[in-house]
Every structure is written in structure tokens, then in C-alpha cells.
Amino acid sequence: MANAVTPPIQHTLIDIPEQIESSRVCVRAYRSGDGNALWEAIEESRDTHRKWLSWMDNHHSATDSEAYARGASASWTLREELPLGIWERASGRLLGGTGFHRIRWEVPAFEIGYWLRSSAQGQGYMTETVKLLCCLAFERLAVNRLEIRCDTRNHASAAVPRRVGFIHEATLRHNGRGTGGELHDTHIFALTPNDYARIRELFDVKL
Predict the structure, then answer these.
(1) pTM above 0.90?
(2) How is domain 18-202 classified at the CATH fold level?
(3) Structural domain boundaries of the chain?
(4) DSSP 140-197
């Protein structure tokens, strides 16, 4: 008798909490109506982030940001990507964005992306957020690999996975081009379940 074939994962049926919180941040899926808050955060941050985040130039008005929020909500529902907004619990202000991208459900493996508005940088919000996402990925979604990739010139971005405890696996040379067309190298940081088990007790957040 032939071995039974394991059916493919129906990832659209996977239950994922739409909101997770720590002491200072609420990380949740985008909703209809988030466009104005997103637009304000982008407008504040263009000069700081344009070198790294070319997608900001696609936001010409609050209407564009609202369209993004609604599209992100659809992607979440279909589990194609899992975009998330980062909100300050005390004030309700949108601090930035994050989420799981380049998802390979067959592994499963996710890549974390992130950005913070200019006035929220340097206060530990992103480190707190990434720790929350690690808890979600490994404790709720049984992820086998979690990655963070960044331009080697973006030292602030690279500092986040290093603080959390990710392993620097490689630096890909001439792996992409920046917003000005210049070649750049890319750092790859990653965690596996064994890595996560080793550093989990050092986290100051929990789901």
C-alpha cells in the first residue's frame, strides 16, 4: 500500500491573532480607516526613510494610504502576507509598520520587515515589536525559520536583530540597488526554533 500523501496546508484557515500587545505597543492588522494615521506617519518620516524605503513615494495623499491599509487587510485575510501596524498603547499614535513577508507556508518560514516614524526612533519600540513577532511566530505559528534582511548601510535597522538575538548568517554582496540606483550589500539574520528556545528567557515580553 502506497504511503499516504500529506495534504497541503490550507494556510487561509490558520488562526492568527489580529492583535498582540506588550507594555508599550499594540501590534495589529491594518483596518479600514487607518489611512489617515498611516499618512501622517509617512509624511513625518519621508526625509529620514527615503534612502531605504522607496515605497513611501507611492503615498501621495491620505487616500493612497487608506488604499494601502485596505489592501493590507485583504492580504492578511488571504494569508498572502501579514502586514501589521505598530501603535503606541498610551497615546494611540501609529508608530510605524511591520509584519511577516515573503512567507513560505510549506516550511513555514517568514521574513520580518519594519519601519518607525522619525519621532519614535531610538526609544526601543522596534526591539519590543520584533520580540513580540518572534513570540507569535514560534509559539503560535510553529515557524521553522524567521529572517530579517537589511541593507548593510542601514546600521539602525541591523542593530534590531542583533539586540534581539538573531544569528547573522550571511552578507550578500551586490545583492540589490538602493533608491538612487547604487549597488548595496544585504545582511541576513535568522532564528530557528532552537535559537529561539535559547534566547526566549531573555525576552521581557510575552503573548
Answers:
(1) yes
(2) Aminopeptidase (3.40.630)
(3) 18-202
(4) IS--SEEEEEEETT-HHHHHHHHHHT-EEEEEEEEEEE-TTS-EEEEEEEEE-HHHHH
Distance of CA 65 to the CA centre of its chain: 18
Residue 51 is classified by DSSP as T
DSSP strand pairing (19-21 vs 25-29): antiparallel
Confidence of residue 1 (pLDDT cuts 50, 70, 90): very low
Structural contact between residues 188 and 176, judged by C-beta atoms closer than 8 angstroms: no
The pLDDT tens digits of the residues spanning 111-166 come to 999 999 999 999 999 999 999 999 999 999 999 999 999 999 999 999 999 999 99
Q: Rounded CA gap, 162 and 149, in Å?
A: 12
Place of cell 495589529: 28
**Rounded (10°) CA dihedral 66, 67, 68, 69:** 50
